[in-house]
């Protein structure tokens, strides 16, 4: 029996198409937040930026104007501030004295102190003719410091070009000290003005600009600072140096230092400073109230200079 075998061919699978997936990049949120050009929001954005820029420009101009006003009127503003501070200090002193009057025996002690001081003053200055003459000289000195004095630095009127700059008419201070070093070593150290802050504590820095000119930064009363440029007017190695501030300086000043050999026993260093303090006479008075005495400062500076030059190795050039 013939068997018909039916051979089934394998089923042919039709190809399946793979769907195409398109990746859409999400826009940058920062870009989405910015308005599109040409829209109303874009115009408002640009107007806002322009307003902010204009406001910042006006603010900078205002601050610049304030700064320029302070620079142009610095002496006047300083004097006003010092007068206000002096008034406050006076009120505080009066309040303290009023409180002392209420303390038992305090008033009697103050009167006794005043009487004792008067007796000492009369015995010191009034009883002898020489003492009265000394008192008159000291009074004249204080009057010149307050109202102005004649220049004490005639050599300051001589410079390389024979010009004669006017001297200052403010306070004048003169101090001297004996140092056991040669005039040459002392002159060489002082001539480099950048060394001065090492022993002058009220001078913060001195920067040499050239052979003659230098820039100074110093402390002023009540924690303020002043700056000025100075130039050397006259120098005679190793005897003397004379310098003064240039026009437009915060402090109008003239200074000199003289080195005189003392017969082999050392060198006398004499410093003379004449300057107009910030705030004028009012500034000088308030500075004295707060303990910033120019004479005391110069004396302490020279004592530090003496200690520095006698105990440390003198730098050579």
UniProtKB/TrEMBL annotation:
Membrane topology: Multi-pass membrane protein
Cellular-component GO terms for this entry: membrane
Membrane-spanning ranges: 76-97, 103-122
Compositional bias segments (type: Low complexity): 8-27
The entry's keywords: Membrane, Transmembrane, Transmembrane helix
Entry-linked Pfam families: CAAD, Polyketide_cyc
Domain annotation Cyanobacterial aminoacyl-tRNA synthetase CAAD: ranges: 66-148
Predominant localisation class: membrane
Subcellular location as annotated: Membrane
Coenzyme Q-binding protein COQ10 START domain location: 181-302
Feature: compositional bias, Polar residues: 33-46
Chain segments carrying region Disordered: 1-46
UniProt name for this protein: Cyclase
